[in-house]
Design a protein that fits this description.
Number of strands: 20
CATH architecture of the largest domain: Alpha-Beta Complex
CATH class of the largest domain: Alpha Beta
CATH superfamily of the largest domain: Medium-chain alcohol dehydrogenases, catalytic domain
Radius of gyration: 20 Å
CATH topology of the largest domain: Quinone Oxidoreductase, Chain A, domain 1
Largest sheet: 7 strands, mixed
Shape: globular
Helix content: 10-25%
Number of helices: 9
Order of helices and strands: EEEHEEEEEEEEEHEHEHEHEHEHEHEHE
Amino acid sequence: MKATAVVFEDRERAAFKQVEVPEPGDRDVVIEVEYSWISIGTESSFFRGERISGEVPYRPGDPWPFPQVAGYQKVGVATHVGSAVTHIKPGDRVFATVSRIEGMFFDFAGHVNPAVTDGSQVWKLPECGVPTIAYAGAVLTQVGYNCGSRPPVERGEAAVVIGDGLVGQWAAQTLHARGAAVYIAGRREERLRLAEEGGYALPLNARAVDPADELRSAGVAVGIVVDTVGSLETFRRLQPLMRHDSHLVSAGYLGENGAVDIQTLRGQEITLHTPSGWTKPRMDETIRGIAEGWLKTEPLITHRFPASEAALAWELITAKGSPALGVILEWQT
């Protein structure tokens, strides 16, 4: 079965081309894709050849994982539903994670259309008036939700999110919805402004101030730190401000530099959380949060490209000082 896809042919080389996908089986849903959302952090590390699987960094001698069709999130319309799938019917607007593909380094794919997807990885979207595009990044939104839902929250306690990217924004939104007083530390003024104007976090501009010094001066005792970018150095500067029985959520990709000295956590009885991946219950809650409006996705979309121009999207994403935050590929242009 023929499809089109965004293929990483080699390091730092993306192309839009025809590919082969399997014929659908009884457990599959075929989706005519409308939008897919680029996961800049994860996909960039594959694009640069920094890792060979989800959490495994590339080491000299490893086979390069190319060609591959990266990505893991998209929305569209179900056009065919296998006989064993009961929760989706043809014509439903749906969200899907990874789909099946042939002839690539990995047998799963993200940015592909039509998308032949196991029914367990397909969600019917709520009929509540929220635009379909709002759900296009739901796996990544779920990562932020997962970060923000892990630690217990006492109403009004201070939570610091390290990183002003998408995961940081959604972690901050989740913590705010649960009653925390959230600070978001980052280096991009326009992203920090999104959080402040959205009403879910106070900004800490790390280009202008040391977030730890700023909070120390304000007398803030921190109950939760969520690291979305893999900056253990920033956590260590914040750690003296953390109260007894506080929480560290570590979600940033650390490669081979992720050593945490547990003994240094023990004195404050800091609980370490290490969220990863997605599960059906968390996806269900994330989609519900988008439908209810407390998980905000559309304000974070900064760029949209026809899927056929994905190479241009990657030029933008990898440019020094890129303004890209939420990047959407449009498949029906």
